[in-house]
Fold:
Amino acid sequence: MKFREPPKLAMRMLRIFSCHPDDEAILGDLQERYQKRPNPVWYWRQAFIVIFHSLARETWGHKRDSARALCVGWFALFAIWIALEGLTAHPLVLSRHVCTFFWCIAGTGSGGLVGAIANNRARPMIFLYAASVAVFLLVFHGPTKSNAMFYWIDTIVLTTSILLAALPHPVRSVTPAGEEL
Amino acid sequence: MANPNAISNFELMVLLALIRLGDEAYGVPISEEIEKHSGHDVAIGSVYAGLERLQARGFVSSSVGDPTPERGGRAKKYFKITGKGMRVVQETQRTLIRLWKGLPRLEGGKP
Structure:
């Protein structure tokens, strides 16, 4: 039988974003099923469902850690932003490029802090915090006609820089089913 | 008072699939078995989420199998219903049968 490789990007996303203790078995099951049903759309759908369940398990299952991660993240984001804006209060310094750079620093800094306090659940907590920032910016802080381009650039930069803070943390740092640390 | 052994409809389907499959129960056949009998698409992620809940409550046990080439060299994770899980299925069946009785509108599967 010809071996069919599932979509590489979906597999990579599963490896990065999923933090389920049975990830290897799930990836194997998806690959085995893909040999019978080689449909990339089906694989992508399955990948998103696995990621959603895995993040929901880690965040909804540990509500206190999740609430702490969100509080620390948002507080750090505002604190870093205000500090950086204060440092460059001169009107000539605060250009558009500096502003985007600020978001980058504020995102990485606040995401890093969330990861530092989350112990063995750093990745899911950083993803939760990044999702809350993205939802806030998209739902409650939409673009205006005059700044639409910068709004999208800043939103992408901020969310990506928060997600970058997850990179130093191990992919699988969760406990098996039923175990509580 | 809430029943500590209460399970959802999907969890019941997962347990019944485990009983049907016996020693060959892992993610792929479990999802296929539920799809075959329910007629709906079942996500493997949802099956694992259900199995994890059932395992945490002691209704299911698991063991790691051998890796195979069609799985990219990844091992299978086999699941088995425990005695406690079997009792929950039987209890649920009895409850459903009792509820079913005396409902002429639902006899023969017709609404």
Notes: Chain A touches chain B at residues 1, 3, 20, 22, 24-33, 35, 45-46, 49-54, 57, 177-178 (CB under 8 Å).
